[in-house]
Specification:
With 294 residues, this protein is α/β, with parallel strands linked by helices. The chain has helices at residues 2-39, 74-77, 95-105, 126-142, 158-170, 184-188, 200-203, 210-214, 234-243, 261-265, 267-278, and strands at 54-59, 65-71, 80-84, 108-112, 151-156, 174-178, 220-226, 247-254, 286-291. It starts with a helix and ends with a strand.
């Protein structure tokens, strides 16, 4: 009898292990199949024609039609900042921010849109994001006459990875990152599938790795992060800044979350951004903490 009970328990345990293993494999396969949908989440937004920015059109290398919004007088400003938005935003939502940035830093700001967002054809992906970013840069070079000496790349959240990859190919004067994540693999480690980061390279088509790329960049790297960011922890921002070969300033805003750095940081945020856009790359980097309660 004891042997029968032991055998039954062993069989039940084996079936439980197999079931858990099957569920785990199923989750991994789902992530493999839909990883672009996890990373890129275009919001559904109604069309609009009322924008306080100039809309420009261009094509990616594979023929996909794209657009961007341009804020400020690019001829008079001297500096152009190309700013890439997050995974659940659209470029036109950043126009008020870009207007403030253009005023605070006396710069021209270009807000490129990704394919699949805000009515654009195509599907966003890791490979497509590189094509779209380079298309924006090509337009800026050909039409806005930007050169590496007066080019600044900015990214927020997902856009920090897009901007960093473009920086490797364009040698901007500065790379400005707001709420950066260290790598796609590190973000995968924060998901609900244990151990996913261990074999991320085997299943991933999304290979963003800001932490590795800033180590070899000549451009000066500036980082801002909210101390209470629950989407991308502030530790990742600190890691990216520490890894940069050429550091500007790390701005940690106490009390700020993922999307409210400009509001909570206030003048300190806009001053940091202006310095990032215009600072001499030879000035040694340092960190700054801003307490929103003061």
């Amino acid at each position: 009898m004891n042997r029968e009970v032991t055998t039954r328990v062993t069989h039940v345990f084996a079936w439980i292990v197999l079931a858990v293993g099957a569920v785990y494999v199923g989750l991994v396969l789902l992530l493999w199949a839909f990883q672009e949908q996890v990373v890129f989440q275009p919001p559904r937004v109604p069309p609009t024609s009322l924008m306080s920015a100039r809309k420009v059109h261009y094509r990616a290398a594979d023929g996909v039609e794209l657009f961007a919004y341009v804020v400020g007088d690019c001829g008079a400003a001297g500096t152009l900042m190309i700013a890439f938005h997050g995974n659940a935003d659209v470029a036109r939502w950043l126009v008020p921010w870009a207007t403030n940035a253009a005023h605070a830093a006396e710069a021209c700001v270009m807000l490129p849109e990704y394919r699949g967002y805000d009515g654009l054809a195509g599907s966003p992906s890791y490979a497509a994001s590189a094509l779209d970013a380079h298309a924006a840069l090509d337009y800026a070079r050909a039409t806005l006459r930007v050169t590496p000496d007066n080019l600044v790349l900015f990214g927020f959240s997902l856009g920090t990875a897009v901007a960093t990859e473009l920086a490797q190919r364009s040698s901007p004067r500065a790379l400005v990152l707001e709420a950066p994540f260290s790598s796609a693999r590190a973000m995968a480690g924060r998901m609900f599938v244990p151990g996913l980061a261990a074999f991320w390279r085997l299943i991933a088509r999304v290979q963003f790795n800001t932490l590795a790329r800033v180590r070899s960049l000549r451009a000066r790297v500036w980082v801002a992060h909210g101390e209470r960011d629950r989407v991308i922890p502030v530790e990742m921002g600190r890691e990216v800044f520490a890894a940069a070969a050429n550091r500007g300033e790390l701005l940690v805003v106490q009390g700020a979350g993922h999307t409210d750095l400009p509001e909570v940081g206030g003048p300190a945020y806009w001053s940091w951004l202006a310095r990032a856009i215009h600072a001499d790359a030879k000035v040694p980097g340092h960190a700054v903490a801003v307490d929103a309660a003061h």
